[in-house]
Amino acid sequence: MNKLRTLGLAAVAMVGCAHAAPITVSSYDTVNGDSGPSGGYWDDTYNGTGTVTQDGAPLTGGTGDLTNGIIDQDGWVVSELQSSASSYVGWLASSVDVTFNFDPGTVLDSVTVHFADSNGFAGVDYIDQVTVGGQVFTFTDPGNVLTSSLTVPLGGIVTQALTMTFESAGAWIFISEVEFDGTQGMSAVPVPGAALLLGSAVPFFLRRKSAKR
Q1: Is residue 181 helix, strand or coil?
Q2: What is the pTM of this model?
Q3: What are phi and psi of 137, to 5 degrees?
Q4: Residue 194 and residue 183: Cα distance in Å, rounded?
Q5: Which of 103, 86, 113, 100 is closest to 168 using CA atoms?
Q6: Measured on CA atoms in the order 158, 159, 160, 162, is the torsion positive or negative?
Q7: pLDDT above 90 as % of the chain
Q8: Which of 68, 100, 118, 181 could tie 21 with a disulfide, CB 3.0–4.6 Å?
Q9: How far is CA 75 from CA 27, 163, 166, in A?
């Protein structure tokens, strides 16, 4: 009987166990990128509400280039000027806000931002400041690079939405990917077989207990 009870409790733990990092972003809200010399530096793959071919158009309820798993390795000059399938979103602004949405109960440990840095060429420079929940994080110039990244600690906060403000040392902000690390919320897919195990083991334990009486 003790073994069956242990099995039932283990099944409960398995069903309640959330997924580990990386975190899947359910959607994000921001404004579309802007146009430059070679065309629109837009969030081309965004699948929510908004016009992805219009500068500064509000984008809500979807995901796109910022969370598609593609991290640029070549820099924006190659990706934006020589390719029709860029992984960047580019804003002609000193700062931009992005609100990321998650499954309920998601725990966030950190966020890593991958961005372009042409050392000021054509106004594209590094991200020097990120604001999250009123807390400001500043970063130094990564040096003579084409691409770089920064990581912001989030301290294991539990949230369903997180607004981040990115600020650039230049006229443009070019971001290719934003990655979150932590524990996925409870609406994540359960561990395969856990629900079936729970459904079969617990009733059997109850029947054995009744039979003993």
Answers
A1: strand
A2: 0.78
A3: -120, 130
A4: 19
A5: 113
A6: negative
A7: 63
A8: 181
A9: 26, 26, 18
* Residue 137 one-letter amino acid: F
Instruction: Find, among 139, 123, 143, the residue nearest to 131 by Cα.
Output: 139
Average pLDDT, the chain: 82
Angstrom distance (rounded) from CA 198 to CA 201: 5
| Residue 117 identity (one-letter amino acid) | D
Give me 127's structure tokens. Answer: 């991200």
Closest by CA position to 63, among listed 79, 78, 52, 76: 52
Longest dimension (CA), the chain: 82
Range 161-180 average pLDDT: 97
User: How many angstroms separate the Cα of 199 from the Cα of each of 5, 61, 195, 196, 212?
Assistant: 13, 35, 6, 5, 21
**In the predicted model, is pLDDT for residue 33 greater than 50?**
yes
> What pLDDT score does 199 carry?
45
Closest among 126, 130, 123 to 146, alpha carbons compared: 126
